[in-house]
Write a structure and sequence with these properties.
heterodimer; A: 380 residues; alpha/beta; seven-stranded mixed sheet; six-stranded parallel sheet; B: 160 residues; mainly alpha; 2 domains; 5 helices; flat; transmembrane (chain B); membrane (chain B)
Chain lengths: 380, 160
């Protein structure tokens, strides 16, 4: 897969990736996903997204080749690869912040290395390809348990950990009311994972009816269309006895709809880094002293949010890229013991050769698309 | 308002990961005190630099590994080199990068043509899916674009 400019991608033959560092591995990709955050790249919203780049940070595959210092993997292992590239040695990795590694991205200090996510995230080619180079192969890649479906495994590289961490960062207490903005794959997974922390209500807000219907059934949550409301913040206050939700989670990021000023300043004129409507609603809908958890992706340099309300309401804001490696043991157990069904999110399986169609399908929310998996051809 | 799941405690896994100590940073970070050692840790051997890498001026040296895809080139590369002279705090870092991305898009088309390849924009944009799954909406989009284009054409013609 190769990016050619906003809304333009195609498949091309590229040279085989090489071992460039003794801790590298080369993985033959068997499945990769298009993530909602890939759409920010596809729409040209992320600075330093160069023509010729290959996207894809959610993938699983087979180890094809290993560098001389790789000890934990062997050729032929089936592995899932966390989306963040982590060295395991820097002070951030040592403290479990694998999404904030200091030794995987020379191009920006605000974000660690991420596969196929622009040069702002390190300039790595991603996994929407037949083969991909994986640095620090002893740290991130995890051998897929033999009884695990690869469709479940590929969603453990990002969607499940990000949804889970979104809920975890909410500090949810027994009996809490949790509101999730965005019924994309991450929002749906955050709604499902929120239950692990003991709330009494989980509410999801979006404007796409088929996704709300899906979320209601998949995540056992209440689902509401903000286009049916005069004001979603008033609606949420009212439904929480005029108090505010205990926890609000932003799973939308920089392309939210619902506020014309945000849309004009963030999407039409690019005066801010996309639209921060969901985050604005989260801050204004949460109770005083509540917690706002952010996993929606925002680009640099800044966004317009009501920071004065954060101060006056005494809010705690918690945000991060998911620390996939830290969460994997717990999440693998949830999947193996039947409490989570990641592959239930997959609605479309598309050959890698039809990647342009797959992006359009997901971007325009056609054919009731929730999650698309790309499958490289059998010849690879 | 009626709650939809009165029996929520029967949802598989309900409450099993609840952690009353989750306030407010634990368990995101397993604090070890290593932060105070700053950048004094054992790094992996550096990856050999085989292409031009633009580095943030907020770090003293390049990270041990990095991606080597699509090194900067052409006019967009010149703009990117300018951008990386400024910190991630500055507009003059990010806005030139976005500008360079747009220039790069045209460079990509020129590069295709130079190689004798005429890009199939319709296929690259996946319009087949729009025609298949959203024919009416797609027709409206095309008609709107055509109308706006025609109006601009008329305005320019009138100016001349």
């Amino acid at each position: 897969m190769e990016y050619r400019g906003p809304y333009r991608v195609r498949t091309v033959e590229k040279p085989m990736p090489q071992i460039l560092h003794p801790e590298d591995a080369i993985i033959r990709v068997t499945r990769s996903c298009i993530c909602g955050s890939d759409l920010h790249l596809y729409h040209g919203m992320v600075p330093d997204t160069r023509v010729g780049s290959t996207f894809g940070h959610e993938f699983v595959g087979v180890v094809e080749e290993i560098g001389p210092l790789v000890q934990k993997l062997k050729v032929g292992d089936q592995v899932l690869v966390p989306f963040n590239i982590a060295c395991g040695k820097c002070n951030f990795c040592k403290q479990g912040l694998f999404g904030n590694c200091h030794e995987s991205n020379p191009m920006a200090t605000a974000v660690g290395g991420i596969f196929g996510y622009s040069h702002t995230a390190g300039g790595y080619d991603g996994g929407q390809a037949e083969y991909v180079r994986v640095p620090y192969a002893d740290v991130g890649p995890t051998v897929i348990p033999p009884d695990m479906d690869p469709d479940d495994a590929v969603l453990l590289t990002d969607v499940v950990p990000t949804g889970y961490q979104a809920a975890e960062m909410g500090g949810i207490k027994e009996g809490d009311t949790v509101v999730i903005f965005g019924a994309g794959p991450i929002g749906i997974m955050a709604a499902r994972c929120a239950w692990f922390f003991g709330p009494s209500r989980v509410i999801i807000i979006d404007h796409v009816d088929y996704r709300l219907e899906f979320a209601k059934n998949y995540a056992y949550c209440e689902a509401y269309n903000f286009k049916d409301m005069e004001d979603p913040v008033v609606f949420l206050k009212k439904t929480t006895d005029w108090y505010g939700a205990d926890v609000c989670i932003d799973c939308v990021g920089c392309e939210a709809e619902g506020n014309s000023l945000q849309t004009f300043s963030g999407k039409v004129t690019l005066m801010q880094a996309g639209t921060a409507t969901a985050l604005q609603w989260a801050i204004n809908s949460v109770k005083k002293g509540g917690i706002v958890s952010i996993v929606g992706v925002y680009g640099p340099p800044f966004n317009l949010i009501p920071i004065g309300n954060v101060l006056n309401k005494g809010l705690t804001i918690r945000a991060n890229q998911a620390s996939v490696k830290r969460l994997l043991p717990k999440l693998i157990a949830h999947v193996q013991e039947g409490r989570l069904n990641p592959k239930g999110l997959i609605t479309h399986r598309v050959p890698l050769e039809e990647v342009a169609d797959a992006y359009r399908l997901f971007s325009s929310k056609l054919d009731n698309c929730i999650k698309t998996v790309l499958i490289p051809s059998a010849k690879s | 308002m009626k709650k939809q799941h009165q029996d929520y405690k029967n949802i598989p896994g309900w409450g099993m990961d609840a952690d009353p100590e989750n306030e407010p940073n634990y368990p995101m970070k397993n604090y070890t005190g290593d932060d105070h050692h700053r950048s004094d840790y054992k790094r992996s051997a550096p990856q050999p630099k085989d292409v031009e890498i633009l580095m943030s001026n907020e770090r003293p040296k390049i990270s041990a590994v990095f991606g080597n895809s699509v090194p900067p080139s052409g006019l967009s590369g010149m703009i990117r080199r300018y951008a990386f002279k400024h910190s991630e705090d500055r507009y003059r870092h990010w806005l030139p990068l976005i500008f360079a991305d747009r220039i790069n898009m045209f460079e990509g088309v020129v590069d295709d043509l130079r190689k004798g390849y005429f890009p199939n924009i319709i296929a690259e944009r996946g319009w087949k899916m729009e025609v298949k799954h959203n024919p009416k909406g797609f027709a409206v989009k095309i008609a709107t674009a055509a109308a706006v284009g025609y109006m601009i054409f008329l305005m320019l013609k009138k100016k001349k």
